[in-house]
Amino acid sequence: MNLFNTEHNPATSNLSERCRELHVIMRILAELTTPDKVVLKILQTICENLELALGEYWIVDNKNNVLRNEEVWYKPSVNIPEYKKITSQIVFSPGVGLPGIVYTAKKPVWIQDIVHNTHFYHTKVATQEGFQGALGIPAIHEDNVMGVFVFLSYTSQPFNNDILMLLASTGRFIGLFITRRQAENVLHQKYKDLELKIKRRTSALIQANRRLQLKIAEHKQTENALKRRIDFEKTVASISTKFLITSDFNKAVFKALTDAGQLSNASRTYLFQFYDNGSIMDNTHEWCNEGVIPEIYHRHNIPAAMRPWLMENLHAGNIIHIADVSQMPQEAAAEKEEFEKEGIKAFLILPIYAENELVGFIGFDNVVTTGPWREEDIARLRIMAEITGNAISHKKAEALITHMAYHDPLTNLPNRNLFQDRLQVAIVHAKRMGTIMALMAIDLDNFKTINDSLGHYTGDLLLLAVVEQLKKCVRESDTIARTGGDEFLIILPEITYPLNAAIVANKILDALSKPFFLESHEIYTTVSIGISLYPLDTNDISSLIKNADVAMYLSKEQGKNTYRFYNSDMNTHV
Question: Sheet harboring 268-275: ordered strands across?
Fold first, then answer.
């Protein structure tokens, strides 16, 4: 049995190149393929690129602690009815069968001869179909195996350790995409749940309206009250629909405050949202009736600790209904003083929750006269507060997905997508202003040795520590992006002379010359830096990045822990 073929074979050179091409294809595939087709497309792409006959995807069933087959792809020329039937019926525990072994090992496994390998499953059927070799690749995100890809071949291809490591990297990228897809599915489910709630609420309102029509016919004396109730319910339904169909959250909130304020005869309606773990409250939206002075400009960044009585009631889930501000309790002295300063005579405040978390409140002020709000109005306004909370939750989920698409999950730095956007903006600005822009390519020296000897967890801690030092060496207007395992790119816009870039490079080398103390380890690391200048070296984005990389690799060749500016002679050397 030979799980890992480590022989250096000329055939592996072409295979290694195809694996690198495959890694690039996987990145493009994740961005262009719709989520419901992506697994089959991954199987097809890997099979066609590596000349494999069949691919399977085994999903992790955490509830039962087994792996189940979810997808199978094979070439049109392959006829495997019996094999496919067995695959759809079998499950594997961790450590059992090729899927289970890959799940436990958390790395690719290559079986060169499945006939004589005791770890392979249903060998008899597989060999009847003519299969000889098998390859397993885990899809991993943050050390969690999301699933296992298994591929079968009619030949025994050579896969050396370098190729398996490249396939492992591809598996980690696929795992990240699957995690992102799951997050998108959660967002989609939240959207469906919100839509269902609105449909149910609208259905309930329609039924209530029908009952009201009957009562109007029977009780003419209640006509005005019933008309008001209908108008209120229509407004709530309209608010629900507005949040559902519009992508402009701010516009939908203002429309909701306007409708609710006019219908409840309020002088002013407003939305406060909490930030910094609930320690800060901010008046983000406001509607004022005609002749009423806006207060939104004075209600920003208010410490929650300055409103203890208000916060205590909100956290308790209470509706705060004050018919006469002058009669507020003694414990609300701070709030009473503020309300009286703003000329408020009566108010109603409703807490807003998103995913069972207090995220803000909606307020209704009366600056004309004292007096209570109607109980039926309060009930309907509370529905509006619930709808607003659902909309805030939906907005936060969308913001999270957008952030994940443009930031590195470990360091939270811009990823390659966001880096490309910012580099384009920096070049356009430099061209318009006639200034110089520098691009630094940075690579940690000997990071693989540290990672292999101390483990990936310590390696990740080192990357985070290095990032903190890099941030201290650049301006807020500069951009640091993580574009690879230990690779970083830094955009330095608006520099006066190339010397300015050299100063930053020296600051980085000096900052990283000191040891890092991580998990009881004293770790020394250095970096190699390459610098390319726009427009002195090139006017082209891709050439600018390439030139910085060339200069960085020459820094490594010259002994590492140094920096080099790009010049055209370097291309000849490389």
Answer: 302-303, 280-288, 268-275, 357-366, 346-354, 320-322
